[in-house]
Amino acid sequence: xxxxxxxxxxxxxxxxxxxxxxxxxxxxxxxxxxxxxxxxxxxxxxxxxxxxxxxxxxxxxxxxxxxxxxxxxxxxxxxxxxxxxxxxxxxxxxxxxxxxxxxxxxxxxxxxxxxxxxxxxxxxxxxxxxxxxxxxxxxxxxxxxxxxxxxxxxxxxxxxxxxxxxxxxxxxxxxxxxxxxxxxxxxxxxxxxxxxxxxxxxxxxxxxxxxxxxxxxxxxxxxxxxxxxxxxxxxxxxxxxxxxxxxxxxxxxxxxxxxxxxxxxxxxxxxxxxxxxxxxxxxxxxxxxxxxxxxxxxxxxxxxxxxxxxxxxxxxxxxxxxxxxxxxxxxxxxxxxxx
Length: 339
Prior knowledge:
Elements: H1 3-10, E1 17-22, E2 24-37, E3 44-57, H2 58-66, E4 71-79, H3 82-93, E5 97-104, E6 110-117, E7 120-127, H4 135-148, E8 154-158, H5 167-180, E9 183-187, E10 199-202, H6 206-212, H7 225-237, E11 240-246, E12 252-256, E13 262-264, H8 277-290, H9 295-309, H10 320-326
Parallel strand pairs: 1-4, 1-8, 2-6, 4-5, 8-9, 9-10, 10-11
Antiparallel strand pairs: 2-3, 6-7, 11-12, 12-13
């Protein structure tokens, strides 16, 4: 991609407006050192040296978008607890709109704690109490969507299967975005039987894609005919314009109606932590499309962005400067961050 083309796409990014819908989480990282094995069990003893907190799940998608534009809103659910307060504080400090976030005393804010030592994840501890979205909260979501969709350029759905994304919500989003001519991007969850329709772009990983068609994901590589068959089948199943299939170390594959699949190999140079890489891909793919990138350009940009964040420790976001440098845009006119 030339410097001129990069600027043609990203110079309009600060003017784009987004709504992110989905399951909100708080990512906690406990950093430490390992010097010995526990005498109680064959496990390492981690001496804690620090703790960090980041927005996770759908909130991490919003965080990635916020690096490029000031207008990002979030719709989701937290518990009325200390971790919910911490997550909202992080979001508001980042300039992400939280007026459509509901706080439910009956819910528990989802927290994923990762213990990191020697630049490796030792263990992950999840704290969550599955609870459906109350009727009152769902009505608040629907009312908020009817107002917000008209004001944004794109809606992104990050479904982690924790209860926010229901069939009622999906149907409302499909109708609203179609009626208003807005882009609808979805990161689906294989354990949530929501049926999507009229989606602009959908981004499953390999296991999610195969699971959606009830098939085993044990296939060869990106050239495998079964993989191509699944990708094309999901375009029809989800009534999607585009499908971007993430393939881990094999990169990504783009499916469009009437075109052969387009494969972009991984751009990662070093992999320290894959936490949130899918969130980054989702955010940057949608951003690029709303800024006028072609589908293949958007796939390449999303793949490059993911390759950057897996080289960082913790739930990370890619910055405009990092993305520009990855495409060889080094001159003074490279897009700057919004903060």
